[in-house]
Design goal:
- By secondary structure, the protein is of the alpha/beta class.
- The chain has 3 domains: 117 residues, PtsI, HPr-binding domain (Enzyme I, Chain A, domain 2); 105 residues, Phosphohistidine domain (Glucose Oxidase, domain 1), CATH 3.50.30; 308 residues, TIM Barrel (Alpha-Beta Barrel).
- It contains 22 helices and 17 strands.
- The protein has an 8-stranded mixed beta sheet with strand order 1-8-7-3-4-5-6-2. An 8-stranded parallel beta barrel has the order 10-11-12-13-14-15-16-17, surrounded by 6 helices.
- It is globular.
Length: 567
């Protein structure tokens, strides 16, 4: 059995089709006739646009308009004058087109791949896909036609790119296995949209398997079996039938309120990264937006977005949500998120350095542009402002003072906004957790970011494999921190939500119910699953489980108990 990341739930059993990567090597030579080389490059760009447009249309017809936006995003990137313009400049300087494409794409890939946020890192995958497509066009290489694979096929590849996914015929593919990718990668998003089980990041799987091998893909647990015996296959045939039945049961939660088994009503929101993601939240029955990551408005561009551009983006998401809550997190830059045009200096320890609210307060003119954009959007719906990486009460007060400055400016200009807009903070540092009772007197709401809270509480770099075993929200220290934050917020009468990955974890949900969490913000595709799990637990049952959990002393003991108690 091989282990990977469970990216698209379900069980797939079938015959492997191994997608072999092409050799994209080329001779980097000096070009004398730069005009001819630019023409060759421009022809490749036009061919790329034509092919990508066709892929987008194919995805729109066979999967959905939301998923088609992935390929449309590729078109937008290549149309950006920064990317294509830099390639053209290199060609004009005597570089061959292949070298220019590689150098510029690798620069952007390097920038995005260093980022911790999975959605940010996905930009690196997008640009890698663009790079590969352009190189194939320049080198005259044709892809394997995935649309012609036989029914019952399990696709195995180093990376299943969106351009590959666009060719998939859902009825023929029963599983996907790759060597790279995560839960938020586009291959995972498209696999979920197609309802094809997928396990990603299985080390060296393309070297282990061969065409026609039999594979079991357990996209729920992240397990892969190659050429299993008859007994294992029989077990998974039963598991597949049980999964199909459970998925059908989830449909009864569409349009229902999110309530515990004893009738306590909770809020189930969604995390998004772009205005268009709000549509996915609505499609998946989300009750609001608990986290709108505004960083995407600042990336993929050579300069800061204007107030008008930000206002339009926020307004779009607010109008899509139709009056439901939209919590916009202000710029969380620094750490793993580098934006070249901001000129941030390299730091030895960026996660403890000049980032998020620290950077924004030190660059108040830029920050006020964002705050004005958010305030203007608040005239069109229920908007809240969320401040990231708060470590002391002074930061909350400073942001609120800037918000008041912006309000005064907008009033004098006759611009409408929500006079009572709430300003809350993410509680994602050990410092914020320890003074949660003090912060609750200044903040209008809390949102717990479990990813960073775990990292800072455990003093662990989750990107370091040597210490990754410590990175778990089920560590006793993290659980006590979460409980403290929720209780402090509830005692002060403010809403406490959670927008980290733990909010959708079936093992964590009963503990959060016991601790008194009122708002859960999850990936849109997990809304019905989370609603179903919440519906199975009463407060009394959750309290009894939490009491046992908090009496345990190790993460392993806690996880074992929660798994044994799962409903």
């Amino acid at each position: 059995m091989y282990k990977g990341i469970e990216a698209s739930r379900g069980i797939g059993i079938g015959s492997i089709c191994l997608i072999v990567e092409h050799d994209l090597s080329f001779e980097s030579k000096h070009i004398d006739d730069t005009e001819a080389e630019k023409a060759r490059f421009n022809n490749a760009i036009e061919a790329f646009k034509t092919e990508t447009s066709a892929m987008a249309e194919n995805i729109r017809k066979n999967i959905g308009p939301k998923e088609a936006e992935i390929m449309e995003g590729h078109l937008a990137m290549i149309a950006d004058p920064t990317m294509a313009g830099e390639m053209t400049k290199m060609i004009e300087a005597g570089q061959c087109a292949e070298a220019a494409v590689t150098a510029v794409c690798d620069m952007f890939i390097g920038m995005f791949s260093k980022m911790e946020d999975d959605m940010m890192r996905q930009r690196a995958s997008d640009i890698s896909d663009i790079k590969i497509s352009l190189l194939k066009l320049l080198l005259g290489i044709e892809d394997v036609d995935i649309s012609k694979v036989a029914p019952g096929t399990v696709l195995v590849a180093h990376d299943l790119t969106p351009s590959m996914c666009s060719q998939i015929v859902k009825e023929n593919v029963v599983g996907i296995i790759t060597e790279v990718g995560g839960k938020t990668s586009h291959s995972a998003i498209l696999a979920r949209a197609l309802e094809i089980p997928a396990v990603l990041s299985v080390p060296n799987i393309t070297e282990i398997v061969k065409d026609k091998d039999t594979a079991i893909v357990d996209g729920t647990e992240g397990d892969v079996y190659i050429n299993p015996d008859g007994e294992v296959i029989s077990q998974y045939v039963i598991k597949r039938e049980e999964f199909v039945k459970a998925q059908a049961e989830l449909k009864k939660f569409i349009g229902q309120k999110t309530v515990t088994a004893d009738g306590t009503e909770l809020e189930l929101f969604c995390n998004i990264g772009t205005p268009k993601d709000a549509r996915k939240a609505v499609e998946c029955d989300g009750e609001g937006i608990g986290l709108f990551r505004s960083e995407f408005l600042f990336m993929d561009r050579p300069h800061l977005p204007t107030e008008e551009e930000q206002f339009e983006a926020y307004k779009e998401a607010v109008e899509i949500m139709g009056g439901r809550t939209v919590i916009i997190r202000t710029l969380d830059i620094g750490g793993d998120k580098d934006i070249p045009y901001l000129g941030l200096e390299k730091e030895e320890n960026p996660f403890l350095g000049y980032r998020a609210v620290r950077y924004c307060l030190a660059n108040s003119d830029m920050y006020k542009i964002q705050l004005r954009g958010i305030l203007r959007a608040s005239a069109f719906g229920n908007v809240k402002i969320m401040v990231p990486l708060v470590t002391c009460v002074d930061e909350v007060r400073a942001v609120k003072a800037l918000v008041e400055e912006c309000k005064n400016e907008l009033r004098s200009e006759g611009v409408k906004f929500d006079e009572n807009i709430e300003v809350g903070c993410m509680v994602e540092t050990a410092a914020a957790s320890l003074i949660a009772d003090i912060l609750a007197k200044e903040a209008d709401f809390f949102s717990i970011g479990t990813n960073d809270l775990t990292q800072y509480t455990m003093s662990v770099d989750r990107g370091n494999a040597e210490v990754a075993y410590l990175y778990s929200a089920f560590q006793p220290a993290v659980l006590r921190s979460i409980k403290n934050i929720i209780q402090a917020g509830n005692a002060a009468g403010i809403t406490v939500g959670m927008c980290g990955e733990a909010a959708a974890d079936p093992l964590m949900i009963p503990l959060l119910i016991s601790f008194g969490l009122k708002e859960y913000s999850v990936n849109p595709v997990l809304v019905l699953t989370a609603r179903s799990i919440i519906s199975k637990w009463s407060k009394a049952e959750a309290d009894a489980l939490a009491e046992k959990v908090l009496a345990l002393t190790t993460e392993k003991e806690i996880v074992e108990l929660l798994k044994a108690s799962a409903k």
